[in-house]
Structures are given as structure tokens and as C-alpha cells.
Specification:
This protein is mostly beta strands and 219 residues long. It has helices at 2-14, 68-73, 147-158, and strands at residues 18-23, 38-46, 52-59, 61-63, 85-91, 95-96, 102-103, 106-114, 129-135, 164-167, 181-186, 189-200, 203-214. It has one domain (20-214). Mean pLDDT is 90; it is low at 1-14.
Length: 219
């Protein structure tokens, strides 16, 4: 019984993440074309020992394709311009993405992608919305990237035919989200939840993001 309790304590400790929000310079390896798009505010996710695991820098204003009604009713990931730059990610330690793929330490861009509704993808994730990690040295366009090219670009991170994926969960009660936080939307999954300014032409609004920082799909 004592051993069982010790194991439970160890498991709880291993999955205890913390969040630090600060102002931090953008990675020098990020393209100078992209740097002006991102805010210098950093969101650092630390592991149980307090060591940095992931650091995010998010775009100042997220580009939308939305109508006035959609803006008034609240936008979702589906109104974000597909393939657009969402932010930059520094992976400080070896990290496992939602597909159980190993991601090496380094700096990556994050671009939005919607998983196609095809049979081979059915049931692989609870949601279809993702950010794809792309090699920072090869991603220099301020414009949105088409899905086929984006998948090819992200696949260079994994060295396989599959892109590296960061699952996005829907953000509920956006108006109540006063500051960034870590949240557990489902068992054994942790997300970084934050709000960003967004715009469709001259129409301004806000959008929430919930990036999966820990957790993998269940086979």
C-alpha cells in the first residue's frame, strides 16, 4: 500500500507543470520577416522540477476571415486564416507531440491547420484544430501557407510523412479569461490557455487559444 501511494505521488509530481509569463526577446533564429508580427511577451511552461520545457511567443494580432455576425457572436479557430503564422515555440527539452512523435529541442514556428475529414484521420484526436510546428530556418513567409506545403514543411521536423502537431482545444468563457493559465481539458492533457487580439479587415475582436503542452492521443 505504501509503495502504491509513493508511485501515485511520483506520477502527480512528474505531470505538475507551471507557467511563467515575462517579457523576453524573440529567438534570434526566427526570420526577421516574421519578428515584427510577434509580441515580445513570453509564455514559459516549466516541468515539475522548474526547468523550462516550452516557451511560446504569440502573434500580436491573429488574422481572421470572418463576417460581422461571426465577429459579434465570437470567433473560433475556423475563422482564423488557414496556414497563418500563430507564433513561435522554443522546445527546451525533448518533447512529445499529440501524435506521440519526438520533437528535438530547438525553435519552431507555429501555423494553424485544420485536420481534413478523411477516414485515415477519423478518431485520432478529439478536435480537428492544430498548430503545426515548422523548422524556423525554413519558414520565412509573412503570408499564410497552403495546407499541402505546410504539411511538407512541418514533416521536416519529424523526418517522416507526418507533420508535427500541437492540438488546439476550444476556449470556453473567453470573457472570464483574465490572464494566461494552464488547464486540464481532459485526463492526462494540459493546455496553455490565453487570449489574443484578432482582426478581419477593420473589424477587431479577440480569440482564445488552448495549446496542448502535455498529453498524447490514445490508440
Amino acid at each position: 500500500m505504501k509503495l502504491f501511494l509513493v508511485l501515485l505521488l511520483l506520477l502527480a509530481t512528474e505531470t505538475k507543470l507551471t507557467l511563467s509569463v515575462d517579457k523576453e526577446a524573440l529567438p534570434a533564429t526566427l526570420s526577421k520577416n516574421l519578428q515584427p508580427l510577434l509580441a515580445p511577451q513570453s509564455f514559459r511552461v516549466n516541468d515539475a522540477s522548474g526547468q523550462a520545457l516550452l516557451t511560446f511567443w504569440i502573434r500580436k494580432e491573429i488574422p481572421l476571415e470572418a463576417t460581422k455576425d461571426q465577429i459579434e457572436n465570437g470567433v473560433t479557430y475556423r475563422e482564423v486564416v488557414p496556414g497563418s503564422l500563430i507564433g513561435c515555440l522554443e522546445v527546451h527539452q525533448q518533447w512529445t507531440d499529440f501524435r506521440k512523435q519526438t520533437i528535438k529541442p530547438g525553435v519552431y514556428t507555429l501555423r494553424l491547420a485544420i485536420q481534413p475529414m478523411t477516414g485515415d484521420h477519423e478518431g485520432t484526436a478529439p478536435h480537428q484544430d492544430f498548430c503545426l510546428l515548422c523548422p524556423v530556418e525554413k519558414d520565412i513567409s509573412v503570408e499564410a501557407v497552403g495546407l499541402e506545403k505546410l504539411v511538407q514543411l512541418s514533416s521536416k521536423v519529424t523526418g517522416t510523412a507526418h507533420p508535427s502537431v500541437m492540438l488546439l482545444f476550444p476556449v470556453k468563457k473567453l470573457a472570464e479569461l483574465k490572464e494566461p493559465k494552464l488547464e486540464e481539458p481532459m485526463t492526462s492533457v494540459q493546455t496553455l490557455v490565453l487570449v489574443r487580439d484578432a482582426a478581419a479587415e477593420k473589424m477587431k475582436t479577440q480569440i482564445g487559444f488552448a495549446f496542448t503542452v502535455e498529453g498524447v492521443r490514445k490508440d
